[in-house]
Amino acid sequence: xxxxxxxxxxGQGAVGQDYLRRIYPRLQSWYGWYNLTQVGTLPxxxxxxxxxxxxxxxxxPKTLTSGLDDYPRASHPSEDExxxxxxxxxxxxxxxxxxxxxxxxxxxxxxxxMAERLADIELLEQHxxxxxxxxxxxxxxxxxxxxxxxxxxxxxxxGQPLPVPxxxxxxxxxxxxxxxxxxxGYVSLFPLLLQLLPPDSRQLGSLLxxxxxxxxxxxxxxxxSLSRSSPFYLKRNTEHDPPYWRGAxxxxxxxxxxxxxxxxxxxxxxxxxxxxxxxHELRTNVVGNVLRQYLDSGYVWEQYNDSTGxxxxxxxxxxxxxxxxLMMAEEY
Length: 332
Description:
Structural class: mainly alpha
Subcellular location: Endoplasmic reticulum membrane
Strand content: 5-15%
Number of strands: 8
Main location: endoplasmic reticulum
Helix content: 25-40%
Number of helices: 10
Radius of gyration: 21 Å
Enzyme class: hydrolase
Largest sheet: 2 strands, antiparallel
Strand order of the largest sheet: 1-2
GO molecular function, one term: Glc3Man9GlcNAc2 oligosaccharide glucosidase activity
Shape: globular
InterPro entries: 6-hairpin_glycosidase_sf, 6hp_glycosidase-like_sf, Glyco_hydro_63_C, Glycoside_hydrolase_63
């Protein structure tokens, strides 16, 4: 997300060359680390590392490195995974690095080439668009037929204490390499959120339809993190791990959505009128609910319930939830 801030500052002319020269080596190291350690098996694909391969106790192994901890990914982690959100972040980062290199007089052709390839809509479709799902998605070794069930244990020998059965994952259908179904939500929206789609792309129309569908992502309080139709919606990930990115409304992601809708409402395209309406409705819903909850509880919250709008999680939480102030000011 730092690259989003830098992108905006560059656009405003608010960063001097001396400062850019000082931070450029560190930006190179940061970008290089991601481009070296998080690459996928195919060119121009990326994979978050660190997923737990011992999935016995997880409904869906976490991807903590993404920041979207329990958001559903491929059910069986493997090196074949392709993660849509990381690819989109790298597209933004590559474009910013190319611009910074130009401004400080350093070679930037490699960054520019990467930015061009990651902005290629045909390549994005090839790696992440599923016609069957009519959505952008991760790719990996996946099955939706998983559940947490109480394990069956043998009776202990006489005189021994009874063991406590755990909730363990049961796989009812073997996984296969495919686009990750049953996971429509924030990750699916990333090409829109980071404004990578042309304003006339058919995929933009599909994402807008999913966004405004109340059975999927739309609520009177903001966009929920995971579709109500997902088999993972509001499901616990372990016995002691309640749902986190599986339905709750997060202000940081809603800010990106409002920001993107504002962008597409200002460029010519077949969806401009619809986008403009959605922009005003979503902004009103998010700002209104955060304000109501603040007046009711006295706090800004980490996340908001997608059914009631009530604040939940940590509080007071004026970290990224404070982005609501930028929505109020229409500062994007």
